[in-house]
Amino acid sequence: MADQKDNNAQDFKVQTAKHPNTSTASVRPPPPKERSRDRASKRLSSESNGNSEAGVGVSTPVEMTALEESFRRFAIHGDTRATGKEMHGKNWSKLCKDCNVIDGKSITLTDVDIVFTKVKKKSCRNITFEEFKTALGELAKKKYKEKSAEEAEAEVFKSIEGKVPIISGVTRAVASPTVSRLTDTTKFTGSHKERFDHSGRGKGKAGRVDVVDTSGYVSGYKHAGSYEKKLSKPM
């Protein structure tokens, strides 16, 4: 019996000599509860870092609807600082006008302004996309009274989807009597009159710089060159 204990002690010493950093406690596997707890903590940490078993940090972009795209285009119209997430009252009225939501009968510009004030928050001047859809729903009920709320809303949404702001043409300049008087060369006097000929065309450098006349005629003589013409005629 004593010999067996000595053999076991000797075997233990041999094992510890081969693996000096190994202990009996580290060799034992953790209990099932601790293993499941470790797996759960690893999963939570991977999800918080944007990683998953299906992929690492992959985020699917949200596709923008045609209605939301039109909302964004009208929201940034004429405002370089706009982000497209909110729309102010002026662009809201333009959207309703350009997309024929305003018909002058069941929906007027006054109705559009009233609905805008109704759906927006009291402390804000703009409306969000969700408030925008609510406002369109209010106008749809008023415009399509014979249809259900869902059908009327769908009709209004359809009239706006894919639309962009209409840019007006260039404004023509209106003739002003004051401007016409100041640009009429026939009424110029003094040195300014000498810069233009009888047709109103500028003389260029000759009208700005004194040019020495070497023709031999005095200034203002109207028959300059007539003597040469007489000599050239046959007798």
From TrEMBL:
Residues 1-61 are annotated as: Disordered. InterPro entries: EF-hand-dom_pair, TPP/p25. This is Tubulin polymerization promoting protein. Belongs to the TPPP family. Transmembrane segments: none annotated. SUPFAM superfamilies: EF-hand. It comes from Muraenolepis orangiensis. Its main location: cytoplasm. GO terms for biological process: microtubule bundle formation; microtubule polymerization; positive regulation of protein polymerization. Signal peptide: none annotated. GO terms for molecular function: tubulin binding. The lineage of its organism: Eukaryota, Metazoa, Chordata, Craniata, Vertebrata. Residues 31-45 have a biased composition (Basic and acidic residues). It is found in: Cytoplasm. Keywords: Cytoplasm.
